[in-house]
Write the structure tokens for this entry.
Amino acid sequence: MKKTALKGIWMIVFIAMGLHVYSQVAKRIYYADENLVPDAHPMDFTHLTLQVSFELESSKVVGNVLHDFTVLTAETDTLFIHGIGITISEAELDGKTVDFTKVDGGFVFKFQNTMHSGEKHRLGISYTAEPIKGIYFIGWNDPTGRCRKQIWTQGQGIDNRHWIPMYDLPNDKITTDIYVDMDKQYQVLSNGVLESKKNQKDGKTKWHYRMKDPHATYLIMLGIGDYKIKKSKSSNGTAMNFYYYPDWEYRVNSTYKYSEDMMRFMEEETWIAYPWPSYSQIPVQDFIYGAMENTSATIFGDFFFVDDNAYLDQNYVRVNAHELAHQWFGDYVTARTSAHTWLQESFATHYDLSYQRIAFGQDYFDWARRQATLSAIEASKTDLKPLAHSSAGTARHYPKGSYVLQMLRDVAGNDNFKKAINYYLQKHAFGNVDSEDLLVAFHESTGLSLDWFWEEWIYKGGEPHYKVGFEKLSSEKGTFGRFSVEQIYEINELTGLFKMPIDFEIHFTDGTSISKNVMVEKTYQTIDVPIVEQKQISYVLFDPGSKVMKTVDFKKSDEMLFNQALSAKSCLDRYDAVVALRETPFDEKKVNTYKTIFERPEFHAVRTEILRQSAADISGLELWHKSLSDKDVEVRKQGLGLSNTINPLYLNDYEKLLKDSSYEIVEMALEMLCKSRPDDCKKYLDQTAKIDGAIGKNVRAKWLALSYLQSSDQVYLDELVDLTSNSFEFRTRMNAANELKSLNYLDRNAVINMFNALFSFNARLRNPIKDVLAEFALQPQHRELMQQVISEGNWNELEKRRLNLLHL
């Protein structure tokens, strides 16, 4: 009895001790991610040989593909290939017919003999495809023949499987030979080197492109259409091919501006020469994203193909630099799964932003980082997913990740950062990577231990929120400024305390300053900065230049804010000071300060904020008037946007804007002038009759709507209706549809055109048009017209589903 009781007591003690020890074990808790590791991969595909031709009117692909592969697993007698919307007519393994079965998402091939590890084989497939994704046929069904005729592809994420039966995941890389038969009047672009171009007896040309280094299958591309090519070379001798529409030659220089210098920049940043034999860029119509970094050949939306005027409203510089950076980060080194997408998109965004700093200046760079902070914080209101997560989302994979990499560069030091990136790229050249590989690269190449940085910025979510205070104090040891910093966000298993080195600055009225860098890592801490007692403090800064992504609450006196707005080095600190003064009444001090800032060279974000605040005060009239003729296009836009009516005293200023270098300003000014001064509208319309505007014919669409309002002539409505048809690219169609909505005009042809847009593969056309149709449908006469068109049509299942979304 005593022994048994003693054993029971000891058992309780051991259990208690065990529970106590267990409760103290550190835990690492992360968001689960179903895409953290790749699927089973029993074969290593090494080479793809593709022969394709097209039945253009039916958007059909006719192809033959050869897959060379090596067996990885110990033994197997089956092979799975991705393929959607594909019909296989014949398949051979090593020259002999092989059985296959169609399954969900692809095909399973059944071998007569078991394969063993290390064996090499070739699978040949003859097929046809009628794809709804992956490859797109533009203009071939335009009955008027006005639309550009093109074929282009978009493989990312997993869409090339819709037109090529193949293993279509990024964890396997292959070399490629691509053969394309196409009518001889069209140019064909694909990955790698153009090996040959041979005319055929049937009037077509056979193009052969070869990629001798391995790349992921989602990067296989085609770009086909009527193009000319401007040839150039980088400073390192890389051939660069700039494709353009023959009628847009005047836009080439403004579109491809800085391209050669971007190549130099990337090679200097990575210490690695451009890894592919050449680099081509090709614009296409109705592209579903901004651009795509296919290996050696970037496709981009022709809405970026701008002239000198449109360049001011939207240019290709950022996207150009982004896609070029992907040639290293994404193509040369590829994320193993989508859980590590940030290793591609964050790096590309980081380098595109770094190049924009060269092209447009430090203020532009800083302002872009501020927008990244705002988008990341907004995303965190929904969830706290980390950067290294497949569903982290655009706001994190792109702008937040770029900011995180800039912080990593600051923490590691520029030289260490470059050294580690070079090591990482060389170690994993033409291979796959995950998030830990980059951390290891920093360890192995620089000796830095950055696990803490990965833990808070890569593997966990959220952003720090600091509450900061400041006071000037004295003690027996002397005078000092004391900053207090408190991390006030919710700390939980998914977002812990942040540890970051932060600068604290005190600026004095004599123009001098003192700075202290401290690792902020506690819930609450104070930082004392010794100062000379006689010096008068002008203003103080916590993290000057916003090097750390964060939210900050830091209350300061108006006097400090005025001084900061006038004198801080970073435009972000000047901007933050002006924003903090929003509730301060417009006294003489504020009026004079704002006038001084506005009239000097200053970044547009600061000046437009001053304009917005000043609009409610009589003192702002002078600044607003000056804004209409300001050199900065963004300031002119803001000034014009603040106008409710046109004061006759300033009529001449508005009329000058009809000749502005910005198409957006011309459109805004034309509408404002015609609505404010209807008797002079015809004069204004005559002045702008030959201006189409940027891509999307924004000025022309507005001009047509205003011309109809001025004259009631049906011809203007007819042209607007025509612009909604598939003879035009998607932005023109959207602009025209919106103008018709503003006029409340809908006829049978407009309904047919908008229904056609509703069926588009391009969501950036389809969704806005759905909204336009839904608004029209609220009115009985328009609803009845749409119902009549539907009743007379012969719709397929996809079209029926799209029409049902209108709830007619």
Residues 1-23 have pLDDT under 50 and may be disordered. The first strand starts at residue 43 and ends at 55. The CA atoms of residues 347 and 398 lie 8 Å apart.
